Amino acid sequence: MSPIPQTTKQWTLSHKPHSHLPILPNTPESLSPETPPTFTLTTTSLPSPGPSQALLKTIYLSNDPAQRGWISATADPARLYVPPISVGEVMGSTGIAEVVVSGDESRLKPGSRVFARTGWSEYTIASIEECTVIESLEGLKDTVFLGSFGLPGLTAYYGLVEVVKLGREDTVVVSGAAGAVGSMVVQIARRVVGCKRIIGIAGTDEKCRWVEKLGADVCINYKKDTFEEDLFRETEGFVEVFFDNVGGKILDLMLLRVKRYGRIAACGTISNYNRDGDPVGLKNFYEVISNRITIHGFLIFDYFPKIAEATQVLVQAWKDGKIEVDDATETVVQAKFEDIPAIWMRLFKGANTGKLTTELV
Q1: Beta bridge partners of 116
Q2: N or C: which end of the chain has fewer CB within 10 A?
Q3: pLDDT score at 5
Q4: Which of 128, 173, 132, 164 is nearest to 151 (CA)?
Q5: Neighbours of 202 (CB within 10 A)
Q6: How confident is residue 21, by pLDDT bands cut at 50, 70 and 90?
Q7: Nearest to 175 by CA among 108, 266, 84
Q8: pTM exceeds cut of 0.90
Q9: Of the candidates 302, 95, 313, 65, which has an alpha carbon nearest to the alpha carbon of residue 176?
Q10: CA distance 113 to 257
Q11: How far apart are CA 110 and CA 102, in angstroms?
Q12: DSSP letter string, 107-131
């Protein structure tokens, strides 16, 4: 039996970014007094877990655009859906961890793998009640419970089924279609709901072809000069549903392409996550009024009581061959603990297809 660790490495928040990407330590940008590094690598002591707690060792970390909002200098605690991370606190994150010590082995056994709030910490003390045991699926990595069968997959499922109530006669446009949520939206819309037509939006031709392989009828590259023309052509006659992961200019354009009484699932606004002081606004908002468009913002936290139910639906869809889950639907990057912030930053550079996950080595 390995000795129980007494200390742990952690990445803590040292400076809240404002209107720019977080600054990584030991980079030219971090040497400027005007832009100090966003995170600091520290080592701290570990307490012993109590009777209702467990000591966890982080194996995989989830990388999510929403984490940027948790550390924003302009985040209003009264408006944010989770408490913002304060300077000096461990950077927040969910992950998959191994139970090293359990305060109640009848409830959680050592050696179990769990989904938990690990933060950017090598080891962490967690409440047993908040640890969800991972039941491995033959032929798949446990990382699928951070992606396809984790919060991104569940977000896609409930966003389509309950928020916009996608039907078989609907056409849906999906922004960020090559990302963790967007790629699952495409698959669920095509192979679970069976809707009429799917139009994806992604950032490279290669990603667009992959999105089409997943089930989109067509995918448009938003970085091309012809994007607006392409979007208007593919949405001729207008569309019933828009699943938005991006916000900004693409959302503004889609307000012109959604049918009267159409529905928009507002899932993310990554285009503005690093524009705190100068967000991209909407010029076409009057379309919401004149065409009676419904925009419904939502979070997967709204559906936590139904997570087990949705996970079962998605796993069964995979078993039935309806949903594709393989190496192409996730980007798992092996990295040292010291590289955690740099891997997370890849989200904002479009360096992944599907779910971006960090595997600590």
Answers
A1: 95
A2: N
A3: 94
A4: 132
A5: 28
A6: confident
A7: 266
A8: yes
A9: 65
A10: 45
A11: 6
A12: TS-TT-EEEEE--SBSEEEEEGGG-
Q: Which candidate, 156, 145, 300, places its Cα nearest to that of 214? A: 156
> How far separated are the first and last CA of the chain, in Å rounded?
20
**Token pair of 330, please?**
């996730």
How far apart are alpha carbons 90 and 120 in whole angstroms? 6
Show the tokens assigned to 307: 């997570």
Residues with Cβ within 8 Å of 22's Cβ and at least 6 positions away in sequence, in order, are: 38, 39, 68, 71, 341, 345
How would DSSP label each residue in 323-349?
Answer: S--SGGGEEEEEE-GGGHHHHHHGGGG
Helical H runs in the chain? 66-70, 151-158, 180-187, 205-214, 227-234, 248-254, 286-290, 307-319, 340-345
CA–CA gap between residue 83 and residue 203 (Å, rounded): 32
DSSP code of residue 19: S
Measured CA to CA, the distance from residue 216 to residue 231 in angstroms comes to 14
Comparing C-alpha atoms, which of 115, 117, 118 is closest to residue 145? 115
Q: What average pLDDT does this structure show over 342-359? A: 94
**How far is Cα 137 from Cα 314, in angstroms, rounded to an integer?**
13
Whole-number pLDDT of residue 136: 92
Distance CA 147, CA 140 (A): 12
Tokens standing for residue 340: 């955690």
User: Residue 273 CA to chain centroid, in angstroms?
Assistant: 13
Report phi then psi at 230, rounded to 5. -65, -40
Neighbours of 12 (CB within 10 A): 19
| 248 conformational bin, left if phi > 0, alpha if psi -120 to 50, beta if neither | left
- Taking the C-alpha atoms of residue 162 and residue 146, their distance in angstroms, rounded to an integer, is 21
pLDDT tens string 223-236: 999 999 999 999 99
258: left (phi over 0), alpha (psi -120 to 50) or beta: beta
- Say how far residue 146 (Cα) sits from the centre of its chain: 9
Cβ neighbour number for residue 350 with a 10 Å cutoff: 16
Q: Return the pLDDT at 1.
A: 58
